[in-house]
Design a protein that fits this description.
- The chain has about 600 residues and is an alpha/beta fold.
- The chain folds into three domains: about 160 residues, Rossmann fold (3-Layer(aba) Sandwich); about 190 residues, Rossmann fold (3-Layer(aba) Sandwich), CATH 3.40.50.12780; about 140 residues, GMP Synthetase, Chain A, domain 3, CATH 3.30.300.30.
- The strands form seven sheets. The protein has a five-stranded parallel sheet with strand order 4-3-5-6-7, with helices on both faces. Strands 12-13-14-15-16 form a five-stranded mixed sheet, sandwiched between helices.
């Protein structure tokens, strides 16, 4: 069925009548939720929200982790012609309050009791909120329980569909507040037509089958996972919700998904775990793995063509699959077909490793403001190191300064109550200025080189893109996170977070007894190890691109620490401010040791 709005999409999803439309972990096991139960809850909640005074154009804020409650609240809100405002559940109360107040939400739906209590203490900062709804339990005397709301109303299909008919493609469906690496979050206004067009156009080039089982673990508060989940519902796939990112490894084995979407950091952690297991094993295991990696690299051209090599290489690949690669795929559930990656650059080394072992990862590109997909690699057209070709109906061009511009039905209506910011982002010809720097190759594949605002201009006036250097640093199995520094400096430096899961076994094998993070980052042998990794990286870089100084940090960048956005992007200004003394000391010492640099 062709769709023009997200209400059309819900009605199409309602027609599939699947026994396992959704799955959630209850009492230690996954429980299947049929389509009929989702539809009943959506219809009931829509009527209940209407009784609370929610009408067309009103805002409903939702602060919750992924789960069946998410599409229930989402589709019920959209069915009334109201606007859903997702709030990242990881946001601290002051930031959550800002989003809720700025959006003018009339109803606030919250999952966690503690979060609800903190927000209730800030009621005066959110004067537009009239009703507080608790997803779990009754939430206390000042709130209404979600289950209570559902029981208070009868499902009225006719009334819902009558309301659905009034929904137009140009109507605003959601405000999604950009997590932002700088400044206050901006409310991106996406229409029904923006998102529905993205769903339809992605499916024109990317084959997702209705019989697939999927697992949802990236935050639904972000446009990437949310749009992909809309695709799942539209087609009739089974959507299983992971308990959390921390339990993902266990949930993958339980759900046995055919596909999922993720950000590069998750793939990096999977690979780090593989290396840790290999490093802690006997010497013969390490030798077999090293041999298998060479076979994977030789087989990569065939994998990219979806072919199996013949002859001697084919035999070696079959053995490597049996001894090594098949066991890695089993950790993904054993039914894995492919995965999608977005939200941040996927290093080519990482992509080559997974493709080589028979785990295809298709990288795409987009932003919240583009609903979100602009381009994607597909089974019919894949080129590692790029983010694929633009999807149908989306145009891409490169501006004179290298910025990527996009135009199409997926481009946002604008930023809520920020006309100046909207005008700066979308020019008079309808081109959205992404803020990313990139190139289109002769075959039409798009390659991202850096963020326009994050380009480093060194003391000699040279422009340097930190992202490729950071990705190369993170290609080391001993480095989990990296931030390159060098604006107005004579040379580049880096703050590095070790991959402690890989570093600890190495340290133990080399007789280092104290493997606490603080001890490891201070250990001279560890410094020597990391310096060798950086020396290897520097060999392939121009002189002005080489990392000349670095420091190890004992803890990962985190959302709670303020260094990461909810989508795992580094807030460079925050990191620079937090470690300013360490950075200055690092440069002073390096310049004393190498005054000619």
């Amino acid at each position: 069925m062709p769709i023009e709005t997200l209400v059309d999409l819900f009605l199409e999803a309602a027609s599939h009548d699947k026994p396992d439309c959704m799955m959630e972990k209850v009492g230690g096991a996954y429980r299947a939720i049929p389509t009929s139960e989702l539809v009943d809850r959506v219809l009931r909640l829509a009527m209940a929200l209407r009784s609370l005074g929610v009408s067309r154009g009103d805002r409903v804020a939702l602060m919750a982790e992924n789960g069946p409650h998410w599409p229930t609240v989402d589709f019920a809100t959209l069915g009334l012609g109201a606007i859903l405002v997702p709030v990242y559940p990881t946001l601290p109360p002051n930031q959550a309050t800002y989003v809720i107040n700025d959006s003018g939400a009339k109803v606030l739906v919250v999952e966690e009791h503690e979060t609800m209590a903190e927000l209730l203490e800030r009621r005066e900062e959110m004067p537009a909120v009239e009703h507080y709804v608790a997803i779990r339990g009754d939430g206390g005397p000042e709130t209404t329980g979600l289950d209570e709301l559902l029981l208070s109303a009868e499902p009225d299909r006719a009334s819902f569909e009558e309301s659905a008919k009034q929904c137009k493609p140009d109507d605003v469906a959601t405000f999604i507040y950009t997590s932002g690496t700088t400044g206050k979050p901006k409310g991106v206004m996406l229409s029904h037509g923006n998102i529905a067009s993205n769903v339809v156009d992605v499916l024109k080039v990317f084959p997702i089958k209705p019989e697939y089982t999927t697992i949802s673990f990236l935050p639904l508060s972000h446009s990437f996972e949310r749009t992909v989940d809309y695709i799942y519902f539209y087609l009739g796939c089974s959507v299983a919700y992971a308990e959390s990112v921390n339990t993902l490894a266990e949930n993958l084995i339980e759900v046995r998904p055919n596909l999922f979407v993720s950000v590069p950091r998750v793939y990096e952690k999977v690979l780090a775990k593989v290396y840790e297991n290999v490093a802690s094993g006997p010497g013969i295991k390490r030798k077999i793995f090293a041999w298998a990696e060479k076979v994977a690299k030789a087989s990569l051209p065939y994998r990219l063509r979806h072919e199996t090599p013949g002859g001697w290489l084919g035999l070696k690949l079959k053995i490597a699959d049996h001894l090594v690669f098949g066991k890695i795929r089993e950790r993904l559930g054993g039914r894995f077909i492919y995965a999608l990656s977005g939200g941040a650059p996927l290093s080519q080394d990482l992509a080559e490793f997974f493709w080589g072992i028979g785990v295809p990862i298709y990288e795409g590109y987009g932003l919240t403001e583009t609903s979100p997909v602009i381009s994607v690699n597909t089974p019919e057209a894949v080129k590692l190191g790029t983010v694929g070709r633009p999807i149908p109906n989306v145009e891409v061009k490169i501006a004179e300064d290298g910025e990527i511009l996009a135009r199409g039905p997926n481009i946002m209506k604008g930023y809520y109550n920020l006309e100046h910011s909207t005008a700066n982002a979308i020019d008079g010809e309808g081109w959205f200025h992404t803020g990313d720097i990139g190139v289109l190759d002769p075959d039409g594949f798009l390659k991202i080189t850096d963020r326009k605002k994050e380009l480093i201009v060194n003391a000699y006036g040279k422009n340097l893109a930190p992202a490729p250097i950071e990705n190369s640093l993170k290609a080391s199995r001993f480095i989990a996170e990296a931030m390159v520094i060098g604006d107005r400096r004579k040379f580049l430096s880096a703050l590095l977070v070790p991959d402690f899961a890989s570093l600890k076994p190495w340290a133990m094998r080399h007789g280092i007894s104290d493997t606490s993070p603080e001890a490891l980052v201070a250990n001279p042998e560890i410094h020597e190890l990391i310096q060798k990794e950086i020396d290897t990286l520097n060999e392939g870089l121009a002189h002005h691109e080489q990392v000349r100084a670095w420091r190890l940090l004992p803890q990962e960048f985190s959302i709670e620490g303020g260094e990461l956005t909810p989508t795992q992007k580094i807030k460079r200004r925050v990191v620079l401010r937090k470690y300013d003394e360490l950075i200055d000391e690092m440069y002073e010492q390096a310049e004393r040791l190498h005054p000619s640099e």
